[in-house]
Amino acid sequence: MSLPRTLGELRRSEFSQERLSRRRVKDELRDNLLKRLRNHKSDPIFPGIVGYDDTVIPQIVNAVLSRHNFILLGLRGQAKSRILRALTGLLDKHLPYVAGCEIHDNPYAPICAHCIEMIAEKKDETFIDYLAPEQRYVEKLATPDVTIADLIGDIDPIKAARGGHDLASEHTVHYGLLPRANRGIFAINELPDLAGKIQVGLFNIMQEGDVQIKGYPVRLPLDVALVFSANPEDYTARGKIITPLKDRIGSEVRTHYPVTVEEGMAITSQEAWVQRNGMPLTVPQFVREVVEHIAFAAREDKKIDKRSGVSQRLPISCMENVISSAEQRTLRNDEKVVVPRIGDIYAALPAITGKLELEYEGEMRGADNVAHDLIRAAIAKTFDGYFDGANMQQIVQWFDLGGEIKVSDTAAAAEVFSTLKSIQGLSEKLTALGVKTKDMVEEQVAAAEFVLEGLYAHKKISRSEERVFKASAKQQPRPEPENRPDFPGGRGRRSFN
After folding, report:
1. How many CA atoms lie within 13 A of 325 on its CB side?
2. Is 2 inside any structural domain?
3. What does residue 225 show for φ and ψ, rounded to 5 degrees?
4. Strand 173-175 and strand 153-155: pairing?
């Protein structure tokens, strides 16, 4: 269907004057949301938002149905910006406006001087253009240097000089972001970071629905849905938000981190760059779980600042680095399939340390050491999920009798496998991880290494920084292996003992 291109054609189309003149942005959001709610099984309200179905989304739905301006309060990495941008999915596919208008004037009810004069002159021959939903979303990151002119507008003396207008004329106005968001959604991220005097400038648009520019009596009755995001710590009486502005925000919605590891894994799988244009990739389930448990462990660790939070970007970035480390090893060894191991998680340390804000105790210990502790705790938690109550005595005894294994993170899977298969009782335990002897060597090595790392995390065996696994330091001295003819010794590059 071709869209009307003049005001006259518009009057004779489905875009009736009654509909466009009376239906404001918040009404449009509400109407389209009601349609989504009726068809929620086939048409999700916020596609791609995981873990908020029973908590955050119902509150946002209430805010939109109530035609409220609202704010999302949450720590970093809780999908606040993504949710705000997803609101464009509740806007109409096409919105007619006066062609060339900076503030996208309604053809039936123009508010800027230029459009009023043009429609009065051209009447039904006035040209019409259309906005797509994504063009109706304007976002501003609040910073202390934002000015009223940035948000509202200012008088432009160059416009006045070129057009021969008086400075008091509306034709000299340079519109700010708010007027340019007219008939759309205007989002401000980190609202408390706006200077107090700039926050005051939002009062009129939120309560009376208009703005005033400079000292001139230019009033623009804008049609805007205002949404905000902020950190809960700043959004308090002791924070940087002024209470009159807080009072004008209709709904306050609190976001949160994933409640379960399964939800976190779903988000990481959705957001991480996993499907690459390279070799075939298989990421073991236990590797995914360990990566996710790192974030969960960090959020509970006393050495990490709770007020700053641990972003969901941590497991996302970590997973990407884990796969890259595995890719590098696979290419160097001319292997055919990329299969990440636990050693690749340690190689992803740069993706972890940069996401942590440490308390004093953490600073004293050091970011790398804190990250190592988190990985070890995550491995232990994941290990318990597969082997809680399992008898690992045969493997532990192998090390107690003098066994020592060195596993290299860069060695080929076949090389590592030839070393690990000498450990008595290890291969039988891999079935709990869904790995069988007929599976790829790469998968068997990843699973076997996970078992050893799990035993190390529970202090059943010890491991050096070079990843040499051996008997736990708690064990008593034992006979030398050369005095035991039944001892199946083995050495690699990473050592467990």
Report:
1. 23
2. no
3. -95, 120
4. antiparallel
Report residue 321 CA to chain centroid gap.
17
- The domain tally of the chain equals 3
CATH label of the domain that carries residue 302: 1.10.8.80
Could you tell me which of 227, 248, 224 has the C-alpha nearest to residue 24?
224
The residues, any chain, with a CB within 8 Å of residue 27's CB and separated by 6 or more, are 67
Last residue of a domain, one of 334, 359, 386: 386
Q: What does the pLDDT look like over 109-160, one tens digit per residue?
A: 998 888 999 999 999 999 999 999 999 999 999 988 898 888 988 877 777 6
Of 364, 357, 439, 453, which is closest to residue 405 (Cα–Cα)? 453
Spans of the chain below 50 pLDDT = 476-493
The verdict on residue 397 lying in a domain is yes
**What distance in Å separates the CA atoms of residue 495 and residue 473, rounded to the nearest whole number?**
14
Assigned token pair, 340: 């990440």
Residues 202 and 347 in one domain: no
Q: At what angle do helices 441-457 and 367-387 cross, to 10 degrees?
A: 110
Look at residue 474 in the predicted model and tell me its pLDDT.
61
CA distances from 128 to 4, 23, 106, 136, 228 (A): 7, 18, 10, 16, 31
Residue 71 sits in the same domain as residue 207: yes
Pairing of strands 219-220, 211-212: antiparallel
Dig out the tokens for 388 from the structure: 């809680």
> Which among 205, 233, 252 is the end of a domain?
252
How much is the pLDDT for 484? Answer: 41
C-alpha span between 292 and 267 (Å, rounded): 10
Look at residue 140 in the predicted model and tell me its pLDDT.
Answer: 94
DSSP letter, residue 410: T
Instruction: Supply the range of the domain harboring residue 293.
Output: 261-386
Phi-psi region of 305 (alpha: psi -120 to 50; beta: other; left: phi over 0): beta
Instruction: Tell me: do 304 and 225 sit in the same domain.
Output: no
> Residue 176 has what DSSP assignment?
-
C-alpha span between 36 and 57 (Å, rounded): 13
Residues 266 and 411 in one domain: no
pTM score above 0.90:
no
Q: Which residues contact 310 (CB under 8 A, 6 or more apart)?
A: 77, 257, 295, 298, 299, 304, 355, 356
The answer for residues whose C-beta is within 8 angstroms of residue 73's C-beta and 6 or more apart is 229, 230, 231, 232, 235, 252, 253, 254, 255
Q: Is 44 helix (H, G, I), strand (E, B) or coil?
A: coil
Closest by alpha carbon to 451, among 370, 390, 369, 371? 390
- The residue among 200, 237, 4, 14 whose CA lies nearest residue 99 is 4
Residues 382 and 397 in one domain: no
Q: How far is it, in rounded angstroms, from Cα 368 to Cα 385?
A: 26
Question: Largest Cα–Cα distance of the chain, in whole Å?
Answer: 106
Q: Dihedral sign for Cα 354, 356, 360, 362, please.
A: negative
**Nearest alpha carbon to residue 396 among 346, 349, 451, 442:** 451
Whether 18 and 63 map to the same domain: the answer is yes
